[in-house]
C-alpha cells in the first residue's frame, strides 16, 4: 500500500508541475498582472502557488489514504510533545539537585584548600596551637559562687592563650570564642555537688597573630586515681634479666604500664615523676643479695586525683 501511494504521489506531482509551469508561462505571455505586479513576477507567484497546491494535495491524500500517517500526525506527535514537556518538568528537580551538589563540591574544595593552607602554615612553623590541644586546665568545686569562679577561670584561660598567640597585643580583652551552649552545660553540671576538672581545648589550628581562638570544654569529675602506698604495677626480674640493658628495659616497660593504667582510671597527666635512681637501686640490691629472682613494684608516694601529678618509686624484693 505504501509503495502504491508513493508512486501515485510522484505521478501526481509530475502531472501538476507541468500544468503549473504552463499556467505561469501563459500568464506571462498574456501580460496578466496581480496587485499591480509585473507580469513576470505574477507568473512566478502563480508557479509558487501551484507548488504549494501540490504539497497540500499530497498531504491530504496521505491523511485520507494512510492510517499510519494519521496516527503519527494526530496522535504520536502530540503525545511526544506532551512527553517532552513532562520530561522537562521532571528534569527541574534534578537540575536543582545538581546545583546543590555543585555548591557542596565548591564548599568541599574550599575546606580542602583551607586544610592545605593549614598544613602549609604548620610546616612553615606559624602554627602555635594545634587542633584538639589542651590550652588550660582548672579545678572547680561546687559552691554558691560557682558562676563567679567559672568567670575567673575563663579570664585566666583567655590571658594565658593571649600570651601564646598575640603576646605583643594588649588591646584585645577576649580572644577565646565559646559556644553559649558549652558554657551553659558547664554551669549546669558544676552546680551539682562534687569536684570537677575543666579542660579548655582548641577547636582549630591557631596561627601566631590570630585575634580569635575557637575553643570547647571537656568536663571531668575530679576523683582519686591512686592512693599513697598503692602498688600500681609489678614485674619479676629473673637471673637472665640482670644485665644493665635488660634492667633498664624492664623499668621503662613498668613505667609505661603504670602510666597506661592510671590513664584508664581517669588521670590526665601525661608524665610520671620518679623518686630515686631505679637502676642504681636494683644494681645495689642485686650485688648484696645475689638472688635468682626479684620482684619489682611501682609504688605511689602520694594520693593523686584526676589532674594531680603522679609521683612513684620502685621497690625491689628478693624472691
Describe the structure.
The chain is α+β, with helices and mostly antiparallel strands and 319 residues long. The chain has three domains: 2-65; 129-222; 226-318. Helices cover 55% and strands 20% of the residues. The protein has helices spanning 2-29, 39-65, 67-123, 146-165, 180-190, 244-265, 278-289; strands spanning 127-129, 134-141, 176-177, 195-202, 206-207, 213-221, 224-226, 231-238, 272-274, 293-300, 304-305, 310-318. Helix 1 (2-29) packs antiparallel against helix 2 and helix 6 (244-265) packs across helix 7. The chain starts with a helix and ends with a strand.
Write the layout of secondary structure elements.
Blueprint: H1 2-29, H2 39-65, H3 67-123, E1 127-129, E2 134-141, H4 146-165, E3 176-177, H5 180-190, E4 195-202, E5 206-207, E6 213-221, E7 224-226, E8 231-238, H6 244-265, E9 272-274, H7 278-289, E10 293-300, E11 304-305, E12 310-318
Parallel strand pairs: 3-6, 9-12
Antiparallel strand pairs: 1-5, 2-4, 4-6, 7-11, 8-10, 10-12
Helix pairs in contact: 1-2, 6-7
